[in-house]
Amino acid sequence: MATVYLPSGFAQFTGGVESVAIEAPRVAELLAALRTRFPALADQLDEMAVAIDGTIYAEPGYQPLRADSDVHLVPRIAGG
Amino acid sequence: MSERTFEVVGTRPVRHDGVDKVTGRAAYGADANWPGMLHGALLRSPHAHARIVSIDTRAAAAAPGVKAVLIGADLPDTHATISLGEAAMDVRDMSHNLMARDKVVYHGQPVAAVAATTLDAAREALGRIVVQYEVLTPVLTVDEALAPGAPLLHDDLVTKGAAVGPKTGTNLAGRYEFKRGDVAAGFQEADTIVEREFRTATVHQGYIEPHACIARCGEDGRAVVWCSTQGPFVVRDATAAIAGLDAAHVKVIPSEIGGGFGGKIVVYLEPIAVALSRKAQRPVKMVMSRDEVFRATGPTSGTKVHVRIGARRDGTIVAARVSLWYEAGAFRGSPVGAGAMCALAPYTIPNFFIDAHDVVVNKPKVAAYRAPGSPMAMFAVESVIDEIARELKMDPIDLRLKNAAAEGDQAAYGPKFGPIGLRAVLDAAKRHPHWSAPVGPNQGRGFALGFWFNGGMNSAATITLGADGSAAVFTGNPDIGGTRAAQAMMVAEELGVDVDRVRPTVADTDTAGYTDVTGGSRVCFATGMAVIQAAQEVREELKRRAAKMWNVAPEQVTWERGRVLPPAGAKDAKSGADAQPLTVAQIAARMTHTGGPIVGRAALYAPMAGPGFGAHICDLEVDPETGRSRVVRYTALQDVGKAVHPSYVEGQIQGGAAQGIGWALNEEYVYNRDGVMENAGFLDYRMPVASDLPFIDTVIVEVPNPLHPYGVRGVGEVPIVPPLGAVANAMRSATGIRFTELPLSPPRVLEQIAGVDARREGRPGTVAVGA
Amino acid sequence: MKLHINTTINGEPAEFLCDGHETLVSALRNTLGLTGTKEGCSTGDCGACSVLLDGRLVPSCLVLAPEAHGRSITTIEGIASGDTLHPLQRVFLEDAALQCGVCTPGFIIAAKALLDANPNPTEAQARFWLAGNLCRCTGYDKIIRAVLDTAATMNEAAAV
User: Same domain, yes or no, for B124 and B211?
Assistant: First the structure.
């Protein structure tokens, strides 16, 4: 199961949960599971990038996950 | 990554677009003139905050030479969002930013546009437009904007993210939090705690070429735009959305670009030029003045950053508390989130809490500026780290080494670091002769780190081979600083052809595959990766063609730097002689007979290139009589992963350092109480000139990035981050004074020096000079 | 009422019509099609529009077009001789002294004026002479090196 770490600022949308284990083959399924579990989080997820085992993807939809992947939701970064 | 030896990468060929640029032939935004073109001009708001009661354009429309007049009501109002490459932006905000509707929210915001047969006629007509305003009180700082009862910029603004108070009826556009561990408990463990509050001024990217475009829109609603931009595809999509066209009918041709630094990603002129052209049915050219560039384009945020850091006696940092407030300008979207994520990035800190606030104020909407958000946050943190080193009597580099993140550590912004060059950069700085050189009288030395995430995203590349074995490569990234040369070098590296026989081209939006902006330090990384893959595609095809000529299976042939080698015993199918190795040119010469043209293509979506770290050492000399300071020696060290063309890598580092030095020492938007910028020209804005700076020594550190075939990490943004802290820390060394507000302009420095002298001599109060 | 101006540009006789208030940079770029001269500020602060007027370095945004009458103007388009680049142009390329390139024509014109007046400048002299030309990309490092390298090259060539 991949472990998802949620930004602390999202505590108000997750009832204080900071990390959660989710079985998902790819990021898309993982985010869908998060939306189901934390409906209040749904709007926030649209503006997040996803770091999978240390590599950040701004548009991660179909990136595959390993069984023990560490997934961090991080704000999207815009460069200059 | 295995150690690869390179033939071309790491050399310094003359850039392919160079002769055009030293002879004046290269065509920039304002250099195009189309037959029958009109000149567009904008009427701009004289108020920083006002309601528009009415606009009467009848007299302007009737003026001699006027062919079209445009106001906000002529443009559609849409809430669509479009991708700016790395961030999404609300089209409505962008549209209102370039043409006000019912309200103006910064001084210089456009309220009407005119296209006429001459520029003089267009300007004359602007004077005939009558706008009635109901003037409102402007808010110009984050403190003013967040004060109870502050005038609101937008009645419908809702705070995004982790709001703590009411989410409506506010100028707080967003609030974000990052935390780890137990901050209160962490500070309990600290032997020393340093706490300061910092401010930085609004500053501009300062590209030398003002925004410029020429556009035509025909009877069929199809538009062609020639413009100076970092992102032709952004211009296409934004222009279509704002002008109300189908993006399928818009083609954008990027001109040469005279600097951008993030400020030429969003659009200001193009939708207006297209809309005017649609009305007039003639091409419309628009060129900004420098005054317009300052007042109504791209600055980056003025900021307030509060930092509290605690460390043990041995230098171990145990806790940090950081609060950031960034001005977004008149519409939401400051880079404060990135600032929050960069603030503590170099360090492993077990307990921290960061909150970040995006605040709208009556100033121009900020645009990306080189490592957007990082310089201000790291200025504050690096200043406090410097103070901790002083309190603990530790060498500033040793203190940083003690707390520096390494591979496998969890970054303050979340994920674990892969291989990073932070320690290598710190070690190189410590060993550098500059660090141990003596410091002269009235001089001080400062050190600071910088961090940036380097970008990835969409890139595409196409390579076509000529029958002579030369190659053309084209991508969709405007070349700001030598990327054509870098891409040609990658093709030469992969195909073994002379770099001089590779022709790199910047293609328009109908020709290139969708490509994200020239920005985010992404071009050499992501577009470079596409170019390398396309070249490898060509290589595979060359092997197939050679195999055909020898009548063997493609798997039997091998590639060896620019040649395909036959398997033992192979014969040339035509002559029957023993097969000889074939060069690219020999295979290309026969491509007509072996299957036709040889073309390689690649398109990809790259993850972010990953962390880049830099360290700068600054020697500052301060004149105690005038408060004027001068950088007398400067060394910039940076992990770039792999330098493809070292001269242009050095150039990026030197240019970023110079911009950061300007930010630290001189540059600022000076506003009057009405929200009018009082120094909207180069003379008074005062960017660094040649006589302000010494040579900027660079040290390129190469810790390969595993995400790129050559190890490229991206280089352009990191070097603007360290100078703010490095200069301020040097000022601290030179004067004994910790300055917490930038810029360190002579009046501000003199005032503080005078104050210290007054206190030293036991005189009451402080002596304010020049303030 | 347009004015009829007779002048010499890059060694060739030239004539054009202009309004009395038109700037020289506007006439060069818009009327004569010499767009190598860039306009960055229109207030004489950035040097992008540098040209030589009777051999003297001027920002062409602060010169009125009618002032060109009877004078001789050198622009970036007139720096190379035939198919041979001026040493400054060649060394700017070799030393990678440009990034975006928009300030480059002005720098080359200003540096030519410097080397015409002082064939062997010190670093400080080069920096102060070129302080009227803004570059935002390079931090001036490679530009100053290129100017000093060019001087050395030209002096060597002259000594042979």
Answer: yes
